[in-house]
Predict the 3D structure of the following.
Amino acid sequence: MIPDVIDVHAHFTPPTTPEEREARWHAMREAQFLAPEPYQWTVDGTLDYMDRAGVAMQLLSNIPKTPDALRASNDYGASVVADHPARFGLLAALPTDDPAVALAEIERASSELHADGFAVTCHYNGVYLGDASLEPVWAELDRRGSTVFAHPDAYAPASMGRPSPLLEVAFETARTVIDMLYAGTFRRFPNMRLIVAHCGGALPALSGRLHLLGTEAWVPNPNGLTQSEIRDHLARLYLDTAATGTIHTLAPALAMTSPEHIVYGSDSGVPCSTEHTLETNRHAVADFTGLPRDQLEAIGRNALPLFPRAAARVGRQVTTA
């Protein structure tokens, strides 16, 4: 992969006190997320890693679970971008448990914060992304031709004694996107581009099963999806490479979508990612043998057409639609 890649999957945290970091650390450990020490995100530390890893820009996201914290987080993310416009972009978080508040935040993030795109959580305070209440939110994002980054809840309770980031995030992602598929979200809103975190989680491995069985008579299909629609809607999704840069996940992803829809993601900025895991995954993407060299190198810039304002700031010309 060429240097100066665009990283669509990078997290940030607004400034916290040592006491807040300690409290969050203990809560994580109680949920079987056995981080060895409290985690602190910093701009300088992130820029240092980006320089050493050859990352030109990170699209930052953070999705708190309360309206006030979410707005404050978006404000802080926008300030980071304002201070470093050629190195960072903002994916403004949306509170998808309240459509009216989400619509207001879309407008505020666009007009005041100049966000490059939006970030949503698969399961936000009890509401999944395929819920019918979100119809006006998807309609507005579609009207704007927005790029939306969908991420599972990595801080959900442990499952069978194992922390959510290890396994459950992959299955939550698959359940959520499949629910959106059958809800007709992708059919009704084709102008909205969705990036799915972690190479789609378990979704690519299940896509063949959906093609085979998804329209059988025994499967509830209220919107009458056809086999070709299932195939086409899944192929339109964008998948990032965060913690999924090996053949085990990239091969199923490429069976579901096209090489142009694989975008680079690191998953930096969170306690479950260390520099060792970030670098191991980055090199795994670079060493992947399932694509010719030109398509492999393009992974690092496939996100440019999705974020034209960010591309302009980083000084890259968008040549594909």
About this structure: The two ends are 21 Å apart (CA to CA). The longest helix spans residues 67-83. The chain has a mean pLDDT of 94.
